[in-house]
Amino acid sequence: MSHNSTRTDPSSSPSAAPSIAPASGSASIAPESSELRVVTTPPPPNVPSLRVMPDEKASGLHLRTAEVPVRWLDSLFVAACNMPVGAGERAVAESIVRALAEILPDRGVGACLAPPGETLQIVRYVPPGESQRTLGSSPTRLFVGFDAEIVLPVGRRDATLHLGVLDAEAAREGSPEHDLMRRAALALDRGLGVARSTERARDAARELRTLSSHMVQTEKLASLGQLAAGIVHELNNPLTSIVAYTDLLLKRQLTVGGEPQDVERLRRIGESAGRMLKFTRDLVTYAKPSRETAIAVSLHDVVDKALAFCEHVLDESRAKAIRDFAAESVHVRGMSEQLAQVFVNLVTNACHAMPPADGTLWVRTRILGSGEGVEVVVEDNGEGIAPEHLGLVFTPFFTTKGDGKGTGLGLSIVKNILDTHDAGVRIEARSGGGTRFVMVFARVEP
To answer: 309: helix, coil or strand?
Structure first.
């Protein structure tokens, strides 16, 4: 069976056919078009013809013998050699339609591209003076108002090539127009294939650049881990001394009945020094997993501890923190200090984004479904995150803050810690302004 079809519509009257606008996604390629200009020249006298030989086995096309003007074949050959395969499939289809319109300026020429899952694209040329004829908008018919139409599938692709004629004889199989369209379909098939391969190569190159960038970031993180290890070593001794002497002074104050305010200050000094010890160690855990053992920990206690750590940040931004915890106790399997680091980073980021003196931070927990999961939401009423940045916030070293105001590691560390705890996280824009982080943990028994 032939891989083409010829459709005639003798009942269509050119004078009675209504004029409609091209279908959505189509492009009208007319001589006066600024998008695709078709230049026609009269053929020279005594134009030679080439007898097309049958059975092009390698191409899958079997051409019958026909008298095809050499000028037609020359123009199609030049167009096939100059297809803009790097500009995409539509540009390739436009180039072939333009070439055919220059060869056959008194016929309607079009192409349909219908990739799976994508919008139908129509490229079409309508001869001058024939715009009143009815036009179709599907791969089956593009030139409904013409006397006949050649419709050829383009290889095995989701594309068709069309020629609308006013003489049904020109549409018969084996005519010069028909065989020219066969060759044009072959050229278009090859061009679309190269265009798709080029796009795939570009996608692969983009992925390779992204992978290379990630490898560079990984090297940076490894170097950062080594640097952090040296910092921890240098800070541990003085911090240990601060903790030890603070404990000694605290015990003396309790023994002699010191002022309650002094006792509280000493307790806070000891707690702060202890937190500094743990935070410096947590910096190393990003590049090297922590040896802390995962146990059942109370999420509410972890959040309370993180908010206590961030009291100075909240005070500086004059923001208030609102807890909205589930009525039941919520325990998850994890490492308490690392989970505290998650909430410290989220709270710190929120404080930096909230308006001064009018910021509010909410931390909510709720038990999901039958009680097997727990959701934790941290949201603020700050300036929010631009939509184009939502997919980048967890990327190492990505930051929208000015120079010296952020390293771009805070949320990346959050994501890394949550991944080690098999917890999911997503980021959303909060209605009314601000950002919402939603985390989901598996719930365990205490």
So the answer is: helix
